[in-house]
Amino acid sequence: MAEDPDQLVVGNFSLATPGGPFPQGWKPLIFEKIPEHTQYDLVNDEQQVVVKAISRQSSSGLTREITIDPKEYPVIEWRWKVENILQKGDVAQKSGDDYPARLY
Question: Considering the entire predicted model, what is its pTM?
Answer without folding.
Answer: 0.73
